[in-house]
Amino acid sequence: MNKEAFSILVVDDDPIVRDVLSDFLKKEGYIVDSAFDGDDGIKKLLVKEFDIVITDLRMPGADGMDVLKNAIKLYSDISVIILTAYGTLETAIESTRLGAFGYLTKPFYPAQISHLVERAAQRKMLLKENSFLRKILRETYQDIELLRKIDSSSNVDLTSRWFERMEKLHEAKIIDREEVEKLKKKLVGG
Hints:
- By secondary structure, this protein is of the alpha/beta class.
- The chain contains 7 helices and 5 strands; from the N terminus they run E-H-E-H-E-H-E-H-E-H-H-H.
- A 5-stranded parallel beta sheet has the order 2-1-3-4-5, sandwiched between helices.
- Strand 1, helix 1 and strand 2 form a beta-alpha-beta unit.
- Helix 2 runs parallel beside helix 3 and helix 5 runs antiparallel to helix 6.
């Protein structure tokens, strides 16, 4: 997994926790930005899209739940991890109900953060792949409908679109090269 492809926002009013966590994640290979409180975190979310947010629960002004709600509202596929020194079962349940990806109580071990962030990054990769595959399938079905209406051998543009689509399906490892070649031969009438 290319960790440099994932951006993380760390939101914590404790500068020591914020800096240690940010430095740790940078050393792990992630792109990391930080915010000094919930209000600053929400402002940064309005300006830039992040893949993962790690936020303290209790902060002056906007708290971690506010950051969570805003992050989910802005980016439906974002993963938010809540950190707190005052963990209770109720807050863990509430944050999960609101869409938090994970919940950790302070103090935590670096391995715990590393594991949660890696899982969140894998989730993001799967969501992107799923979206890409849905797009290819949607386009392919549209082309199938067009093929039913038009004789493909008389429409060069449609045939070339099909060739492109088959190459995308091959790149996504849905069909192999041999299958691509068979489909191309059928399209050109050979």
